């Protein structure tokens, strides 16, 4: 990992306004197409609260419910530099300290929470 790169894990919840309305959990997008953005935000807020309070572990939740293929790695996206991720995602990640978890971040993919790991 080079000095200008960060490493992060995330949990993504897609919704009916997401760019790609399908995921490994929902290959035909039935649930995603029926999920409003408000509902996705409510879900991710509850998940974030559980992780912050210690009730749930970030990687466990990611592997079970994240709509990103990184779920198979507990949400780990590996190292990335500027310009590789959607702008709101990149900015949120760079603003975090290692070990910190972001507030809800909205991108064209859906709603995320991000944990900076490196």
From TrEMBL:
Catalytic reaction list: [protein]-peptidylproline (omega=180) = [protein]-peptidylproline (omega=0)
EC supergroup of this enzyme: isomerase
Record-linked SUPFAM superfamilies: FKBP-like
Entry EC number(s): 5.2.1.8
Signal peptide residues on this chain, from the entry's feature table: none
InterPro entries found in the cross-reference section: PPIase_dom_sf, PPIase_Pin1, PPIase_PpiC, PPIase_PpiC_CS
Gene3D superfamilies: 3.10.50.40
GO molecular function: peptidyl-prolyl cis-trans isomerase activity
GO cellular component terms, semicolon-separated: cytosol; nucleus
Basic and acidic residues: bias regions: 14-28
Region (Disordered): 1-28
PpiC domain boundaries: 3-118
Keywords for this protein: Isomerase, Rotamase
Family of this protein: Belongs to the PpiC/parvulin rotamase family.
PANTHER family: PEPTIDYL-PROLYL CIS-TRANS ISOMERASE (PTHR10657:SF37)
Main function: Prolyl cis/trans isomerase with specificity for phospho-Ser-Pro bonds.
Protein name: Peptidyl-prolyl cis-trans isomerase
Lineage: Eukaryota, Viridiplantae, Streptophyta, Embryophyta, Tracheophyta
